[in-house]
Amino acid sequence: MESLPHCETLLLKKQGPTLFITINRPDVRNAMSLQMVAELATIFSQIESDLHIRAVVIRGADGHFCAGGDIKDMAGARSQKAAEGEADPFYRLNRAFGQMIQQVNESSKVVIAVTEGAVMGGGFGLACVSDMAIAGPTAKFGMPETSLGVIPAQIAPFVVERIGLTQARRLALLGLRIGAEEARTLGIVHQAAGSDQELDEMLDHALERVRQCAPVATAETKALLHRVGHEAMSGLLDSAAEKFAEAIRGSEGAEGTMAFMQKRPPAWAGDSE
Question: Which InterPro entries does this entry report, sorted A to Z (predicted)?
């Protein structure tokens, strides 16, 4: 990505092989608007083929990750009437978010969510599609939709994939709010920091580990993991063996093998572009 696009709801910063995305609507605890959904979708589309970006860090401004859907957008959709032959405005609003969160889920990049403060509704869903999630001491997670008379339509399937059906049922059907430690126990996040300093250290360590792993091999591995459970195992393993052969004969496989033999870091470990 040669230049970062201008966004009204996001702050973007590229540092080495990492793109930092800060959700920047602090006046509404970073609630997710239609514009934010569109901007996130645009960013992830743009970076998909950019091999210089290997990790994406998503966090929220001013101590909150994301408090869920924007009430103003909901009110706007309520005031609209679907034209003949067009989908319901609420359907379009909800489905646009689902398409974006699926895009983040399937991104070839390593997506890291740094969660603090409110991690609710759509924000909770976004955390659940990250490859790694870290919680700060103030983080509160929840699926409050049923307590508001609506349903977690687009996030529920991803929550089930993240933590399993039985725990997703408990959170969704009781509209619970839980803290960072319980979120870690359930597997919503992988690590829970006891302080802001520890949170930053955990993030730095994760990004250093990403740097040690070959970018194409990482992307292929993520794609393979997403196929598990959706295809017959024998066919999946046949395909995986083909991918393995391509990888080991490819430039990354050759470099990784040579670096191991020569007891030196592989070329991608020093990638700062």
Answer: ClpP/crotonase-like_dom_sf (IPR029045), Enoyl-CoA_hydra/iso (IPR001753), Enoyl-CoA_hydra_C (IPR014748), Enoyl-CoA_Hydratase/Isomerase (IPR051683)
